[in-house]
Amino acid sequence: MITQYDVVILGGGLAGLTLGIQLKRESHDISVLVLERNSYPFPEAAFKVGESTVEVGGQYLVRLLGEEHFEKKHIRKAGPRFFFPAGDNSDITCRVEYGTSSFLPIHTYQVDRGRLENELWAENQQIGVEVLSECKVEYVMLDREQHQITFMRDREKTVVSARWIVDASGRAGLLKKKLGLARPADHEPNAVWFRIDEPLDITDFSDNAMWRTMLPPGHRYKATNHLMGPGYWVWFIPLSSGSTSVGIVAHPAFHPLQRFTTFERTLEWLREYEPQCAQFIEARRDKLQDFNYIKHYAHGCERVFSSERWCLTGEAGVFIDPFLSPGTDFIGLANSMITTIIRKDLRGEEDFVQYVEFSNQLYLNLFQLLLRWFSALYPLMGNHQVMVLWVGWYFLLYMSIPVTLFFHRRLWDMQFMASIQGEIGRFQELSLRGIGLLQAWGQRYQQPWSNQFADIMKLDHIIELQRELVMGKELTDEEVREKVSRNLGLLEATLVEYFDRITKLLSIHPGRDDINPYAVSLDPSRWEAEGLFTGSKSYKIAEVSKNIAGVWYVN
Question: Which residues span the domain enclosing 310?
Answer without folding.
Answer: 1-74+111-181+304-374
